[in-house]
UniProtKB/TrEMBL annotation, chains A, B, C:
Name of protein: Beta-galactosidase
Protein's UniProt keywords contain Ligase: no
Species of origin: Roseinatronobacter ekhonensis
EC top class, as a word: hydrolase
Active-site residues from the entry: E144 (proton donor), E315 (nucleophile)
InterPro entries with a match to the protein in the record: Beta_galactosidase_Trimer, Class_I_gatase-like, GH, Glyco_hydro_42, Glyco_hydro_42_N
Source species taxonomy: Bacteria, Pseudomonadati, Pseudomonadota, Alphaproteobacteria, Rhodobacterales
Length: 634, 634, 634
């Protein structure tokens, strides 16, 4: 696979006279892809039905003729103002019952049929016109589903659609009432049209009600995206992508991606460090201008799974952004490092966001590769350096991983619905496990919760898995190594109820969760090893082999052959030690990397990344701050 | 009085086939009471007017025939979904103007006449059917009035009812305008129908307006409860109770209780420690799995007053709960300790909540005496231990107290309406005084603000009392010992205005509050004794005897004969010393108990409770963690 | 100029029989002004059209005949309840879409035409009746525009008015769409009636949209005030004032003041310290009972500019207030200190709020000069002391300042709209510069952003100025000394877009802001001098002389002749050193005052103020706590 670079560009923001120069500079910088069009609806259809595609024809031509391949976005994330007149009820409604108004973006409810029809109309027009355009080499649907908390809507449209969805799912009220346990607190329904959305209840709503609402909301995104894809497929054979976000779990990305060819995501390491990562103040200060050393990699590995191997970074942070609480600039070298790390994890293409900083609009303080005055911003030289380095690099190849981590969107919904401890969060849990594996210097595959064959991995990890799918259960014997289920794993039936045997119900493992505790910050459960459980601890009824015990002798981790159950949330060092020992038992070599040093190998080249602001000496080699080192392995 | 144990049970949650076994196990465990029915409306009346009481007939029979006495709850805290179709405007509305929707519980406005009529109808049906049932030995009205912040509603129904209430109270607009001081900021009304509820005003509403709204809201609860009691009385002679909550001050519990026979409350020590107690992080960590050592006792003593001597714990935490921010498990022994402490404070009956943990619904993570798989949870053995111990125990007898603490719901409303310092809270103030008395090892009576005879107590304390009632004023001479009024006591007229002599206007005590200060955390007023006033300090005009002075010589506490006024909020150690000296002057013996050790005596038996996780040696005796020690005194 | 004292009085709150005594006591205390009437609408017009002015006639007579000069307020901040029946849609609406209801004050939307007409009617009635009354020596319009966050309203009236305002401003949609950059995210409008207010958008609205809404909202206040002034002018020649608030930047005070004769403000040092000042806990604790030593002075100097030289303190805190989170009492001497500091900064008159503490209403816990029982509160003696001292004092004279600080309301709106760093605040920035100048012991003039002549000052400072006005640009050569533009200065065009040359575009200074960073607390950019930039740092493209550099050698402050640009937010000590060196270079003598000591000179008398609770020895003189020292200089 040939790796490549690209950039996001908004021809509609600039005088047409500038397009040629821009295209030429892109090509001269070594970029080969340009993404356009995803926010341009008001320019494509300034009035309802009045289409103005000529400028886009010309823009594609200018870019394509310069040698760039175009990713064309469908503009459905930004319906024009006139759309509101046609569909006044198309707006999403927030959990407080307030409509989320026009004036920024993503101002639509996924359940609104009228807006969906408009989207199909504009996508069809674009597909017909550009589906065979030789410059249009890929498509993007919409933009960042879920960004700005836009998956859940409490609108009338959503209410109606939810009732239909429930009727389809349960067929009878009786089935629904039983599944939800509605006898509790007299919550039984006599008609599907009696069921409301689970907001503004006096105290917390039934978790089963919420869980179905989360499933429904995810399905609405899948359907919205599929409607676009179905149309595009009729007119184009170019690959279709969507650009996902960081730490967005509002919908099942695997399900959306099943209809797409490429997964891509928008990687803003510095912004994400500040606004969506649990970490100490010291950690955040240490990585202020670099981003967290594992957060990007986690998403790279996740979206590689989501994309079934094909994935891009569609938007790569090139400098300071505008949307985080504080917006420092990347250390020199970090734009290059981020780009290479994406390639090390298997990205086909990394596109920077954006070409030239806009002097107007909400993102006027968001850096581009160019400044608003068209002078190069610091990120440009780093992108150009990567472009030169890519030219000398071998083709990318698939990178084997010995360890797999299951990531499941339904689990994120479930524990968000019922955290039981205020700081219990599924992503946080999985990320803690991921970080421990990274510290061990391992390649990691993230895998879907319905993975049917585990034979490729020596170690498979499934912390916090809401329910064990039939397919994953069936696949367990295929794993020749160790499988670890973690706290809360398979603790619920799909309807959210507690299984009659209490879980985790793992085949061949005599282990039952008798009781759970959530623990406030500072309170822990001591382990024999000297470490602790934090956040969460479980009492087990078990006669299985105890491989980790509490200080008081209670079992903390048990196993039967390769199948393990870990009955709590270990502190980071303990988790590291547990996973290290497990890997060693499987014959895997591990490291103990310092926090800023990370590595990945594709089997031929081992990449080293120093995310720190100080030089690290590792195995006799000095890695300066922000360094990328490629070691040929064979 | 014979002490007894019971449990809360939901036959409608389980297959009828299981009822017999459950009943038999309850009896075998030593339980003699079972509370049922309080959330079962949707099963009693699945459609409007379609009554299905047969299953309840059978449940009562099964339980009763097994030897259990039934407490039957009216199901009015959980109106079924069809009720909303009949009374769409019955929902309460929150202070932001949002209806509080169906989907959990307590989804009604106390002021809605249509819903009140429905409640009277279902209560009458139950009373007629079960009023003479020999197994139904007690009744409970509704469930946890006020839980989930449900006393104040800003609905149309509440607005109309409030206007009527004001018209009744004031008879004329002129009287209301004068009482509220509406000339201030041109707030005068020309008609009762011009008066709105005091929410969403531009800046704070008139405190007199808010105070009347609080009084009105309390009266609505009293009327709602009385309507049920009046019906029940016509059909049954069994005692009637309501189950109150912890730290719930939204309505006047004395007034509700005046219509009832028994006060009961729902005691969740671990949940309450975490979600409704001001305490340091260290304190909360020390008592994480035990609950605060004084919080339960405070409510036991309060509800003994509310119940005019007859009181129960209707729901006792048996294990981890689901609703606090974090939900750890009780230390082994605490379920027993909590139960015995309730008995030591005079409880007739302690019922655990609940028999078997539900695998569905909002409380699926709330422990029961049984696990969801019917295996015993750890709490069951402790309940059984208490049952055995009870069998060998003498009858309970009334326990004399030498000290009384006035607790007044109107004062809670008043200082909530006008805290003047952001952390001034009436319950917090009273609880600080209560804790100091507990540290002194004293039996304490909590008494109502209209208590007419004080002759039983050597020391009577009234911190923060909004207004001095005529009856309490008249009773002052009946106290042969010391009376202490604390900061803010009698500082207002009933209409919320400042009295013309500024207060506290205590008979025979030359003392006037010239000025008050509220103090932020960390700022204090030094006392001559070396201690400090925190939160609150008052400048006095006084020629009375000074018994405590500020470091600068100003009077901090004055007295005339036995009548004292304390002009600030002392730190805990100072308050302890002040109350100790006062007790000694009255000839009362005191202790200085460590924080985890508490005691109460009923005159014949002295109970000792170690709420700590370490052994305490006290007077030569070792009390292990969570120990209960009973010393026969005569 | 003769300095004088006054007091705010509410005759409608007290029996008429008391008025004579009150007036006599005011005069005996040395007060010469009394402000009345500003909340009395419900007493002037109890029913629509039913006028009752007789009591006000008599009150003015009683006060005037006693020798007091009356300031008469228009009562438009508190429309009576009946007004709502006439204009149900007159209420403001908050950003969440909730009407801000009757029941306190300021319950009106500035854009409501019906209410504006009512205001004009009542003002005309007052003006006709009292415009020539010899006792009415000044007028006040409304009360505290903007208090309780009342400038921005999201009502229908505001929406309609905003559209009209935009149509006037832009004339065409095309112009508006271009100015706002609405091509970004397809936000283009096809009609002015499509434009909504910028609240409740899915993510942040276009900053250009918000900025125009802020301008519009300010203009609405100006128009509202002007409507009253125009009427008053027709009937009176007495001066007209408005009483502004502390740290209120919701509207352009210069623009409102252009129609008025006197600026006045309401100074509550202790309340403001607690609720509207960024400062460390230690600082707040040190000045708990004194208020911040610079906060009042900053506003004195600001409102001197706003009033074009004529300014008052209309409400001076006389004791504890009721509205801050905590409300301690002033140290003895502070009421006198505050009063004298106002005079030192050029106040004509200081009025205390209020005469007698009200026993009812929202402010019943707000101290007056008298207690509710008419006994003197501690503040009265201090006011009387000032009155005696004034009698012996020379006339005030204009005080020259060598240093000017530009303060611009539009900049406050701009950086509130787009802080880019969560703690970037324009007032905070200007106040940091002001505090450094105060520490230098300098007299300071605050000046408007369109000041046309800078020749009076040796040093002119403009941190954070949104745009450089044409007039200020033209005035730059008139400054014979140093001019410093600070971070973010002139970084935007008036339409909010980034200028094509990136700014600051200062004449003759080769300096361009290439990139900016916002920094979280604890993260800094080191300077060569050892200090740091905090909050904000800018990368410059410059070939100008570097007068301050980063530790890494990058320019941090550059200059060309007297024109400087400071590319960051220095820590306090660094800012002090930078400004000190700048002053020295201009031949100005400076001090380095301790935090509690402040000074101002009017050229003849140098005033010293010890804001601390400890004695300060300065230049051989002991200043006790709260001392005021007047040194005759010539
Ligand atoms: Zn072409
Ligand atoms: Zn029977
Ligand atoms: Zn006169």
């Amino acid at each position: 696979m040939k790796r490549s670079l690209g950039v996001c560009y908004y021809p509609e923001h600039w005088p047409e006279a500038q397009w040629h120069d821009d295209a030429a500079r892109m090509v001269a910088s070594g970029l080969t892809w340009v993404r356009i069009g995803e926010f341009a609806w008001s320019r494509l259809e300034p009035d309802p039905g009045k289409l103005e595609f000529d400028w886009l024809d010309r823009a594609i031509d200018v870019l394509g003729d310069a040698g760039l391949q175009v990713v064309l976005g469908t503009p459905t994330a930004t319906p024009p103002r006139w759309m509101l007149d046609r569909h006044p009820d198309m707006l999403a409604v927030d959990a407080d019952g307030r409509p989320r108004k026009f004036g920024s973006r993503r101002h639509y409810c996924f359940s609104h049929r009228g807006y969906l029809a408009e989207c199909k109309r504009i996508v069809a027009l674009l597909a017909e016109r550009y589906g065979r355009n030789p410059h249009v080499a890929a498509w993007q649907t919409d933009n960042e589903y879920g960004c700005h908390d836009t998956i859940l809507s409490y609108s009338d449209a959503a209410r109606m659609a939810f009732r239909d969805w429930l009727a389809q799912r349960y067929q009878s009220l009786d089935a629904l009432n039983r599944a939800w346990g509605n006898v509790f607190w007299s919550m039984e329904y006599a008609g599907f049209d009696e069921i409301d959305l689970p907001n503004l209840t006096v105290t917390e709503p039934n978790p089963a009600h919420v869980m179905d609402f989360r499933r429904f909301a995810s399905d609405q995104v899948v359907a919205f995206n599929r409607a676009q894809v179905d149309i595009l497929r009729r007119h184009t054979s170019a690959p279709i992508a969507h650009n996902y976000m960081g730490r967005e779990t509002g919908f099942d990305h695997y399900a959306v991606a099943a209809d797409l060819d490429i997964a891509s995501w928008d990687s803003y390491p510095i912004g994400f460090l500040s606004d969506r990562l649990e970490a100490s103040d010291d950690h955040k200060a240490a990585f202020l201008r670099q981003g967290d050393p594992d957060f990007q990699a986690f998403h790279h590995d996740l979206y590689r799974a989501v994309g079934r191997g094909r994935w891009w970074v569609m938007e790569q942070q090139p400098g300071p952004v505008n949307w985080a609480p504080y917006n420092p600039a990347p250390l020199p070298g970090m734009v290059r490092l981020w780009t290479w790390e994406a390639f090390a994890h298997g990205a086909e293409t990394v596109c920077y966001f954006r070409w030239r900083q806009a002097p107007f609009g909400q993102e006027q303080m968001h850096a581009g590769l160019l400044r608003p005055d068209s002078a190069p911003a610091p990120g440009l030289a780093e992108a150009e350096a990567v472009a030169r380095e890519l030219a000398d690099s071998p083709q990318a190849q698939a990178a084997p991983a010995d360890v797999a981590l299951v990531f499941d969107y339904a689990s994120a919904w479930a524990w968000d619905t019922q955290p039981q401890g205020a700081d219990f969060d599924y992503v946080r849990l999985c990320f803690a496990w991921y970080r421990a594996l990274r510290r061990l210097g391992l390649n990691i595959d993230i895998i879907a919760p319905d993975t049917a064959d585990l034979s490729r991995w020596r170690v498979v990890l499934a912390p916090g898995l809401f329910t064990l799918s039939d397919s994953l259960r069936a696949a367990l014997p295929s794993c020749q190594g160790a499988v670890v289920f973690g706290p809360r794993a398979n603790s619920r039936l799909p309807d959210f109820s507690i299984p009659s045997d209490l879980g985790p119900s793992l085949p061949g493992l005599d282990c039952r969760v008798a009781r759970v505790e959530s623990l406030p910050p500072g309170s822990t459960v001591g382990l024999e090893s000297g470490g602790h459980f934090v956040h969460w601890a479980e009492d087990l009824d078990t006669r299985a082999e105890v491989v980790l015990a509490r200080a008081n002798g209670q079992p903390a981790m048990v196993r039967a052959d390769g199948l393990h159950y870990l009955a709590g949330w270990p502190d980071d060092d303990t988790l590291f030690a547990v996973l290290r020992d497990l890997c060693h038992a499987q014959g895997l070599a591990t490291m103990d990397l310092p926090p800023a040093l990370r590595t990945r190998s594709d089997g031929r080249t081992r990449f080293w990344f120093n995310h720190g602001s100080q030089t690290i000496t590792w195995q006799g080699t000095d890695l300066p701050p922000c360094a990328v080192l490629q070691q040929v392995q064979r």
